[in-house]
Amino acid sequence: MVEYTEKIREIAAQLLKQCQVDMVIGFRRGSQVMMNEPCMVKRADAVDSLVWDSHCGINLANYITGRTEKIGIVAKGCDSRNIVTHIVENKIKRDQLVIIGVPCTGMIDKRKVAAMAGAEVLAVGEDGDKITIQTPQGEMFVDKIDVMQQNCSLCVHRNPVIHDFMVAEPVAEQTDIDRYADIRHIEEMSDSDRWNFFEDLLSPCIRCYACRNACPLCYCPTCFVDEAKPQWVDKGQDAIDIRSFHFLRAYHCAGRCTDCGACERACPVGINMRLLTRKLEKDCFAQWQWEAGMSESTRPALDVYRPDDPQDFIR
Amino acid sequence: MKTIKIDKTQWAAGLDRLRESYRLIGPAPEKNYHVFKSLETGQKPDLNCQNTRLSPKALVFPQSEPMMTFTLDEKQPDHHIMKAVATDDAPRAVLGIRPCDAKALKLVHLNFDTPEYKDPYWLVPYLATTFVGLACDQPCSACFCTSTDCGPYHETGLDVLLSDGGDHFVAKVLTEKGESLLTAGGWTQAIDAPDIWSIRRQAAEAAIVTHLETDRLGQIDLLALHGADFWEDIAFACINCGACTYVCPTCWCFDIQDQVHGTAGKRMRQWDSCMFPIFTVHTTGHNPRDSKTQRVRQRFMHKLKYFVEKYDQGIMCVGCGRCVRYCPVNIDIRKVCGLMNSFGSDQSCDMQA
Hints:
The complex is a heterodimer of chains A (315) and B (353). With 315 residues, chain A is α/β, with parallel strands linked by helices. Chain A has helices spanning 4-17, 77-88, 110-117, 150-153, 181-187, 191-202, 210-214, 239-252, 262-266, 274-288, and strands at residues 23-29, 36-41, 50-51, 71-75, 97-101, 123-127, 130-135, 138-143, 165-166. Chain A has 10 helices and 9 strands. In chain A, strands 1, 2, 3, 4, 5 and 9 form a 6-stranded mixed sheet that branches. Chain A has a 3-stranded antiparallel sheet with strand order 6-7-8, with no helix packed on it. In chain A, strand 7 and strand 8 (138-143) form a beta hairpin. The longest helix of chain A has 15 residues, at 274-288. With 353 residues, chain B is α+β, with helices and mostly antiparallel strands. Chain B has 11 helices and 12 strands. The longest helix of chain B is centred in the C-terminal third of the chain and has 20 residues, at 292-311. Chains A and B meet through strand 2, helix 7 and helix 9 of A and helix 8, strand 11 and helix 10 of B.
């Protein structure tokens, strides 16, 4: 995907030069290995800071919430679905945006690379599906599929669903993907096993809210955990409060989450809170064949009543 | 200063002897990283980890800590009366703390031990703890401790400094507390090692690859720096989470909240973060730091400018590199420090230039 960089710069320069946008939101090279930094570029002569590679996992739709400028935005498949969600939820207007679509082949999970390297990772290179990991002990070569973020290996919408430009031809979508094997495994647990599983899953949480804040869906002016009048949730490390935060946040994302993986990626202690959001995603699909962010003209699952909605929960 | 040689064959037995007089705390694996934990009987600190994910700050300044208790039950004679929670003054030893983290505790100490206020919740556990440091011979690439008046063999805040010699440790005795601990562990083999510390220190310092300039931070005009044109660009990527604050060994801000369940209440001290909007919101609803850029600026101005001016003890950062490694969007204090330190010295401070 590194070859997209030139095309992104070219389109961004053109948009800025022709004053079609006030800024272009994209990624610039990070200071850390396997990290790029979301950035805005406002001048055509500054587009060379824009980059693209397999370390652009942060969801850029998070950076357009409530903005009033005319914005060019680089968007991979999941970002584009969150842009659609933003448009549907009136957080931005379609005509404010020029969407530079990126056909995505998946983002690298830096934790998987670190675990595989077994030593400090100094540099990571990519050539298509081949990844080179450099450590103080030397170089090692791995297949990208083995170090990809889990949400990317399960992704069935790699191409942007909405765009004004495409930086390359669409990539083939992954088919025959079983998105929910791990969720079914949790569903099949006994109540007490499931309780223990979630307790263990959430035990490292330090309530930094990186998951919430990296999420484009979490734009409430005051999150329920921050509300002080009245205070719904205590602010400390009590396991009940930590669970309340994660479970309620997941429900707030029901029918809206695109499984972009920004939450899990952002977490400094490596919690896979996507296990919560994906259960709700699975249910939304089973109940209403609903996938979030696929169309500007359809109301979200929990936002609309349809006569053919399942009724069998009414007893 | 006295140097003791501890043969590693004597390490486990010594730890068992220490347990008779100390509660032992050290780095231990937790999921796929390390944190400081109480060590069970027979458990040794895992000294092979480069650095713990979370700093050991929480050992003295827990993320959630009860300060007082009270009851709202008016049938009780002492209802609505705040009672202090007992602080733990039992001796404990933290084994394998890195010099950067030990110095960080010393910086945080400035906030909790002042001529006006002596905070018992901090002071009692801090003073009851013996800090046994482990010198850092293989620093991470994000570390920059030699630029923060610290270093891989720095001694501030430590009672003993250990250096790993393969089949043995050498231990530099720095305080009486440290001497007592080594005696309690039965480690008494004093050796004559005039050069060993300086040789190893120089080698370790040479392994630090990142260097910051901080020399101008104190003299730059505060208001001009506050109004610098780079803040919006620095803050753009920030998602205003508390990851940097909560992994930082020197961030000391907290909130005090009452928690009531039924009629039983606790007054809690909880970590807080200047990245959160509610950190500064007034009861009127007005928020003087209402924008992300203001909050990001506050974090860096506090660490690299206000602290420097107020305490004259360098910057409020020890270069542990955690915030650099765990920021979800790669905001890098080293880059920000560079921009701040060179502010006004040239005109090319626009990061996109």
